[in-house]
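Go through this:
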Amino acid sequence: MWWIRILFTVLVISTLILVLLGWQTGQPRYWRWLKIVWRGGFVVLLLLLLFFFLSRLARI
């Protein structure tokens, strides 16, 4: 499950950077990018979990 830790770390770091940029500059594009990053990270996480469970089922 090391890939979940890596994905979570990337999401947290990118969230902090985009929140700080959006807060300091006041530009809404950083908030849009934050939504895109979180949506993409959520989709990737779901696909990885699906692949993980399907590979577990294939072993049984």
Notes: The chain has one domain: 2-59. The CA atoms of residues 3 and 48 lie 9 Å apart. Residues 2-59 form one domain. The helical segments are 2-25, 29-59.
